[in-house]
Give the backbone structure.
Amino acid sequence: MNTNIKQKLIMIIEDDIEILSTVKLFLEFEGYKVVTAPNGFEAMNILKSSELPNLILLDMKMPIMNGWEFAIEFLDKHDHKAPIVVMTAASDAEQRARDIHAIGWLSKPFDFNELLKKVKKYEK
Amino acid sequence: MAYERERVILANLDMGFIIHAPDTSIIFSNPKAAEILGLTENQLKGKEAKSTDWKFLRKDGTSLPLEEYPVMQAITTKKKMRNMLFGINRPSTHDIRWVNVNATPIFDNKEEISEIIISFQDITGPKLTEEILEESESRFRVIFNEAPLGIAMIDSLNGAIFSMNPMFTQILGRSLEEMSTINWMSITHPEDILKELDQMALMSAGKINGFKMEKRIFQKDGSLIWVNITIAQMKHSPNLDRHHLYMIEDISARKKIEIDLQQAKIAADSASVIKSRFLDIAAHELRTPVTAFSLLIQLSQKQLEKGYPVEASLLKRLKMQADRISHLVVDLLDVSRLERGVLKLNLEFKDINSVINECVADLKLRQPDRVVKILTPKASVKLNFDSFRIAQVITNILENARRYTDKDSPIEISLETKKKFVLISITDHGPGISDEQKSKLFTPFTRGSDELTSRSTGLGLGLFICSEIIKLHGGKIGVISKMGEGSTFYFELPTRQSK
């Protein structure tokens, strides 16, 4: 881990606490700075005060504010300044990504190698 | 010649005249007879009634049998026959002449028939039309009155009915008199009025001559029936050109079958949509713990690679994900068994109190500080039941109460023994359940589509499985709930049950 280079920031929005914590831990292993939110609403709140992340990993099915609603609000406020990668258990992940104009998708269940590949490919 | 005068008269008479011998052979015919019959006088001479050179018709156009020939009738009855109407199908010109026939038998001094005189007048023309019309009118009357189809004549301008047959009366359930005071729109189903008005407008504009449609009408007693109506212009009769023919057929029976089939199809379609949506939800629900499980394992691998030990807490987290998966799979298997009718109870004569206590103890393991009040009789309550399945029911209800209410809010479980059953109730003080939710609680695959986009844990099958288990015991399950006050789930188990 080279501390001289500014660490990239990844935002994870996911309501399943085990998925959220393991993905976070893993990305931290890989040298990323991670910020998490259990739903879209809290993510929008965090984004009010924090810098824009280099990538957003977004779950779709969540309480309070789901992935669809978050994407609409985020794109409205920030355009495509942070790329969004959808993490979904839906049968057609690619369609889900297209629905919300996301740059990429991860189909659940996924493994860390896939996750890392997608993160490296799409991070800004 | 003694008869010369008569011969001249007969030759010039504008009436057919034939004399038959008793054996029906023709002795004499005049020229008019030959003309009307379409044969020459020579051809006629000696011809018998049974000859196939001629064909006679009845008024209705059917062929006249030999025994009804005027000459035959005169011979058989020995009486004069007057004004019989027949058609002659003429072999030479292939046309039909209509004749009015008289037949007179002549007797000798021994009272035997010596000859038969046939006289006939060609009445093809106005006279005939009148008679044929009368005949066809009476035939039409019979059809009109007996037809299994409602027939009416209506005024083309205002639609007023001025004649209708008994079937029409029966279908409408109203008499002609009653119909004269009713506007057709007032007895037509509102949804069908516009369609009919459109057709009538097209007809008034001369774009169509008539139309057919299916519609619903209200009978006098208020019952709604389906009818097929046909409206046709009667333009071929100049006297009737301001009239329309209105035919009506009761098709309620056919329509009912059609509607039943349609509803069955819709039900089948929606059942299949519900099932496939459920499969989508089930796959989705399984993927989440599988993802967590697989990520946790990879995380442990990473830790081991980096030389860190795998912590006990990580194993506990893995076990939790495995439990989540196993719960989902067990529920799916139970529903599958229930749907196939292969879920069998293992009935034992046991104390149900101890089962309640075990279930509460299990809940305490998951949340030690939760207050659960047990209100059960001190003595054991023995009955025949499947302890594994009833524990499943109690645990499911208790776990719902625990999860959907505040962690400090108490839960009560009670057991009451009634005359024929025991009543177990589990009461929470949570947010309560709306009436709309209540109706779906015990039904499988009823998760709304909104739940595809918002997180809800599990498959929503738990209470359905509970209700089926209680039904298999011959008992009842239900819920009483008030919004903002809490819910009581209860079930009854009969103390005596047929195996």
